[in-house]
User: Which sequence fits this backbone?
């Protein structure tokens, strides 16, 4: 009797299938599972409310990067003003 795959194994197979750009048949073969099994896991993952989807992960990362970008621009502007200030004082 075969052992059941772990949650981590299933999650990794689903992640690779959704993000790698490889055909699902190849991903299923690489993981040693059936094509229909992989598709079922993907459908279950998409219906799972407790786990954030890849899309929401990407949206969160984009929001964090935008916030960091805004802070870096503000820091740059402060440094520009300080440079002008000290350049005028040294004359």
Assistant:
């Amino acid at each position: 009797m075969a052992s059941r795959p772990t949650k981590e194994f299933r999650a990794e197979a689903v992640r690779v299938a959704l993000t790698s750009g490889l055909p699902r048949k190849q991903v299923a073969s690489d993981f040693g599972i059936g094509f229909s099994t992989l598709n079922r896991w993907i459908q279950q993952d998409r219906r799972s409310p407790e786990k954030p989807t890849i899309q929401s992960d990407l949206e969160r990362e984009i929001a964090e990067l935008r916030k960091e970008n805004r802070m870096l621009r503000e820091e740059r502007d402060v440094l520009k003003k300080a440079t002008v200030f000290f350049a005028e004082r040294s004359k």
Summary: The chain has two domains: 1-51, 52-91. Residues 27 and 33 are 9 Å apart (CA to CA). The first helix runs from residue 7 to 19. The chain has a mean pLDDT of 87.
